[in-house]
Specification:
The complex is a heterodimer.
Chain A: H1 17-21, E1 37-43, E2 49-55, H2 57-61, E3 65-70, H3 71-74, E4 102-103, E5 109-115, H4 118-127, E6 129-134, H5 141-146, E7 160-164, H6 170-177, E8 181-189, E9 201-207, E10 212-217, H7 222-233, E11 240-243, H8 259-271, E12 275-278, H9 281-287, E13 294-302, E14 308-320, H10 331-337, E15 347-355, H11 370-386, H12 390-397, E16 406-407, E17 413-414, H13 419-430, H14 432-444, E18 448-461, E19 468-475, E20 481-485, H15 494-507, E21 513-517, H16 534-561, E22 568-571, E23 574-577, E24 585-586, H17 587-595, E25 610-616, E26 620-633, E27 640-650, H18 657-677, E28 707-711, H19 728-745, H20 759-766
Parallel strand pairs in A: 1-12, 10-11, 14-15, 20-21, 27-28
Antiparallel strand pairs in A: 1-5, 2-4, 2-6, 3-5, 7-15, 8-13, 9-10, 9-12, 13-14, 16-17, 18-26, 19-20, 19-25, 22-23, 23-24, 26-27
Helix pairs in contact in A: 11-12, 11-19, 15-16, 18-19
Chain B: E1 12-19, E2 22-29, H1 34-41, E3 60-63, E4 66-69, E5 82-84, H2 97-104, H3 114-124, H4 145-151, H5 162-175
Parallel strand pairs in B: 1-5
Antiparallel strand pairs in B: 1-2, 3-4, 3-5
The chains are: A alpha+beta, B alpha+beta.
Chain lengths: 768, 179
């Protein structure tokens, strides 16, 4: 097992940095195609209503307007849309790029104007008049479930988007019947969103002569983008080229093309001219996909020592009108992951997902994370009822090294996790016991200090279409290395980390590698970045391809040097006889022989210095972490100040510790934003109120705490020992912070179960 | 504002700017923002559009050495101005000290907000004066990390690299490498 190599395990500086730092990154809005038209959408300003008509005449008359397309013009000839990960038959909202007979949320695209310039496109969009007869909005998830009169999607006959029935067991019933204590609570999480700094966007170009489509897209998965274009337009996938340049963050929102992107692709084929659409910020906040709005009721049965004996979970999800992917429900993943880091002998997990006349739910960094958000808050609430410290309650229930391998009540098998170690490391780093003493003393002085913990197990999801990824490693004629991968970075440093893996296992210098990504014309099939899978699946492919190419290069060198391959070593882009540096043949020399001087090579010496491998990963690889936060709550203003924030993380063998810490920091800040600042608000009539950055508050430099890191490195059983970790920061930070706030408020007898825990919410709770 | 109609005139004007040391004159629609002028008319796509409302800072450039949201600046209102964008920060192949520090402190991930962060920091380091967190309002406070956090709070970063951004800016500030 390689633990710290020349490259793997080192905080190597990022290869992509110079380009991005000097303004030479190439994001989709930087793409200009000759003859390109610009698109703007006309959107519904009412949450629910019948679309009686769309008057496009004035817009069409504006000079520069190439087309104004409504559903009547755009939809004919389009085929059904489905995401590979969900499958063709998965439940999903009815698919339509544009609103047809009715509108189903504020922001629902009604028409697409395609114009010579974006400025005129905006003008033209304003001239389109939609005649909408309002219908009652569908907003309350509980009420919507039983409502058959007011339906978001009338063709479905119900507002129920998906259901996971409870699977009880006699063991579970017995656990509850014999429990010393049963605690039940409902936790509410509010709507917040990915909000990448780069909004969605694409440039699409149709070549009528070759019947080929080219799309430059801000996406996390160019192949999935291609597949969906192929399905909707009825085109063979090889006729579609999707190019992903630099991408300014995605966090889940760019996993799948949504209705607007599909509309633009359909329009470009219909018009035969290139079309660019760059979503504006208002559109992104209004209709780019929301997340997180759900509630979860957790009942825990425990014995008199606080050991969990059984848990019942009920989840209610608001998936909006047009969720992506599938029906937007995260229950399947949540039900598998819920037991997390604890010994929970029996579990039932029931869920219902409900359509409402609001923006659809999209994937967001750990989409299923309500399981951790609710579970970890429940642990603290149970501890309070037991009169036990939450740290002690976790110690009594956490899975320890001695428990491994451990099979959870949901059937997940843990072999290489370390929740107990991370719990202890986090408690030690934050000085748990010392803080409890300080807290007690400060409470005497009237200060409200609190500490919160949260443990989680994070799955790298590698099942189904996510289970394999490809990499090509090619020694080029000049001795440099092309690394061509199906996965591509949308900000998470793959250009560096994947090159580190290849440099380590191929034996070349890092600087010799050029990373080629994100162009379906050149790269092997890849399922995209998501599910914290890159360090597992993509790095697995990179490693496998690098090792295979290394073997070929060694075989070639052995033939040239007339030495046994086992006597050779590869280092610094050269192959030589071990202990005889003078014998070393640089990669450039070997490449020259293979490509140009092969006539002089011995019979059988390999000349194909290019290897493509696909790596197949097990369905789940688990990382784990413990977050610990201390806060002070101002009882007058309700303001929460984060005093310290500690993360003890075990993501196995780290490829690049600097990148790991950057991922943790980013995730944690998104969770902090969610708990304290960010809230996608709809009023009682279904109107969104937070569609600018003055209303939807992202954390800034002034709010970001320094994170103190602890690392536990338990290698996974995969070659390379890595585990994925990109989402965990955003999964565990909300409950850690919520627990700290509630710990601070404990002397006042208050326990908040709703997010956001904004100053207003805290003041309201403190006001009798 | 009345909606435009067919036949409405598009008003244009000639704007002359010095951009990254080079004099540029061009005729633009008078509604053109400085950001769109830079990106669409001069091909300087380093400055980014994150919100187009002056609320995210991704478009920050230096106008006459002072930082400004280029998306809120009408190009015609800055005729004759000297503009520095992220493309103009480095001196040939030698990175600006802030760019170098951003690498050393891992101060970004996706890079979309980075041009604005860099220009904002470059302007901020020469600004002086008190901020919302300055205790003594009469002088130029030391650029402590707390001051830098406040002064950089107009530049959003969704990858959450703020702590490292502040470390990078602090390193440049304390090294005194800024004029």
């Amino acid at each position: 097992m390689t633990v710290a190599g020349r490259y793997v395990g080192q905080s190597v500086r990022r290869q992509e940095d110079p380009r991005l730092l000097t303004g030479h990154g190439r994001y989709v809005d930087d793409i200009v195609v000759p003859g390109m038209l610009h698109a703007a959408f006309v959107r519904s300003s009412v949450p629910h209503g019948l679309l009686r008509g769309v008057d496009t005449e004035a817009a069409r008359a504006l000079p520069g307007v190439a087309a104004v397309l409504t559903a009547a013009e755009l939809h004919p000839g389009l085929h059904p849309m489905w995401q590979t990960m969900m499958g063709q038959d998965a439940p999903a909202a009815p698919f339509r790029p544009l609103a047809d007979a009715d509108v189903r949320y504020v922001g629902d695209p009604i028409a697409l104007v395609v114009v010579e310039s974006r400025y005129i496109a905006e003008d033209a969009a304003e001239l389109v008049v939609a005649d909408i007869e309002p219908l009652p909005p569908v907003l309350d998830t509980s009420a919507a479930l039983g409502d058959t009169a007011s339906l978001v999607h009338p063709e479905l006959g119900s507002n129920l988007a998906g259901e996971l029935p409870a699977a009880g067991s006699p063991e579970l019933d017995a656990a509850f019947a014999s429990a010393a204590l049963v605690a039940t609570e409902t936790f509410h999480q509010h709507r917040y969103a990915c909000v990448p700094m780069e909004t969605r966007g694409l440039v699409a170009q149709w070549d009528p002569a070759g019947e080929q489509l080219t799309v430059w897209a801000a996406t996390q998965g160019p192949h999935e983008f291609r597949a969906i274009c192929g399905r909707v337009l009825g085109l063979p996938e090889p006729r579609i080229r999707v190019i992903m340049g630099d991408v300014g963050g995605g966090f889940g929102q760019k996993m799948f093309p949504m209705r607007e992107e599909i509309a633009v692709v359909a329009a470009t084929r219909q018009l035969g001219r290139p079309v660019k659409w760059i979503e504006d910020r208002n559109e992104n906040l209004l209709g780019g996909g929301h997340a997180r709005e759900e509630q979860m009721t957790v009942s825990v049965a425990a014995d008199d020592a606080g050991h969990f004996t059984g848990v019942r979970v009920e989840q209610l999800e608001n998936v909006g009108a047009y969720p992506f992917p599938g029906n937007g429900s995260t229950a399947m993943a949540g039900s598998m992951i819920f037991p997390g880091p604890y010994r929970i002998p029996a579990l039932s997990y029931a869920a219902r997902a409900v359509y409402t006349t609001t923006c659809g739910r999209c994937a967001y960094r750990g989409p299923w994370m309500m399981e951790t958000v609710a579970r970890e808050q429940m642990v603290d609430l149970l501890a309070r009822r037991l009169g036990m410290d939450p740290l002690e309650l976790r110690r009594r229930n956490v899975i320890t090294a001695e428990d491994l391998p451990f099979t959870t009540a949901s059937g997940m098998v843990y072999e290489t996790v370390s929740p107990a170690q991370t719990l202890e490391q986090a408690a030690e780093l934050i000085g748990y016991d010392a803080f409890r003493r300080e807290q007690a003393a400060e409470r005497e002085r009237g200060r409200l200090l609190g500490i919160g913990l949260a443990l989680y197990i994070e799955p790298s999801q590698s099942f189904g279409p996510l289970g394999t990824d490809g990499a090509t490693v090619r020694l080029e004629p000049d001795g440099r290395v092309a690394l061509v991968m199906g996965t591509a970075s949308h900000g998470q440093s793959l250009e560096t980390t994947m090159a580190q893996v290849v440099a380590e296992h191929l034996g070349c210098d890092l600087g010799d590698i050029t990373f080629v990504q994100g162009d379906t014309a050149y790269v092997p099939y890849g399922a995209g970045t998501g599910g914290s899978r890159s360090a597992v699946v993509a790095a697995g492919a990179a490693r496998q391809a690098a090792l295979a190419l290394r073997e070929r290069i060694v075989t070639l060198a052995a033939a040239v040097l007339e030495a046994a391959p086992s006597d050779l070593e590869v280092a610094s882009s050269a192959v030589g006889v071990r202990g005889d540096p003078a014998s070393a043949l640089p990669f450039a020399k070997l490449a020259g022989l293979a490509y140009f001087g092969h006539a002089a090579l011995p019979e059988g010496a390999p000349v194909a210095l290019e290897v493509t491998e696909r790596f197949k990963a097990p369905p789940f690889t688990f990382s784990n972490a413990c977050h610990a936060a201390t806060v002070e709550v101002d009882a007058t203003t309700g303001q929460v100040s984060i005093l310290r924030y500690v993360v003890s993380e075990d993501c196995g063998v780290m490829i690049n510790p600097m990148v790991v810490e950057g991922q943790i920091a980013g995730g944690v800040l998104q969770g902090i934003g969610g708990v304290l600042y960010e809230h996608m608000v709809y009023d009682g009539d279904g109107n969104p109120l937070t569609t600018t950055f003055l209303d939807y508050l992202l954390p800034t430099a002034a709010e970001a705490p320094a994170i103190e890191y602890g690392h536990v490195e338990t290698a996974s059983r995969l070659p390379g020992g890595a585990k994925g970790m990109g989402e965990g920061g955003a999964i565990a930070s909300p409950p850690a912070l919520a627990n700290a706030i509630n710990d601070a408020l404990a002397p006042l007898g208050i326990h908040l179960t709703r997010q956001p825990m904004s100053p207003a919410a805290i003041v309201a709770a403190l006001t009798p | 504002m009345t909606a435009p109609e067919a036949g409405d005139q598009v008003h244009t004007a000639t704007v002359t700017l010095t951009v990254n040391g080079e004099s540029r004159a061009l005729e633009v629609d008078t509604r053109t923002s400085l950001l769109d002028l830079l990106r669409e008319h001069l091909g300087l796509t380093g400055s980014k559009k994150g919100c187009d409302h002056g609320q995210c800072g991704a478009c920050t450039v230096l106008i006459g050495g002072r930082r400004a949201n280029a998306c809120l600046a009408l190009a015609v209102a800055h005729d004759g101005a000297e503009v520095t964008t992220v493309e103009g920060l480095a001196d040939g192949d030698a990175l600006h000290p802030l760019q170098d520090a951003f690498i050393r402190y891992d101060a970004f991930q996706c890079g979309y907000c980075t041009p604005g962060q860099l220009c904002s920091a470059a302007g901020m380091l020469t600004e002086g004066g008190p901020s919302a967190v300055t205790a003594d309002l009469t002088g130029d406070p030391a650029l402590t990390p707390g001051e830098i956090r406040e002064r950089m709070s107009g530049n959003l970063c969704r990858c959450g690299a703020y702590v490292n951004i502040v470390r990078a800016v602090t390193a440049v500030s304390t090294a005194g490498t800024e004029p």
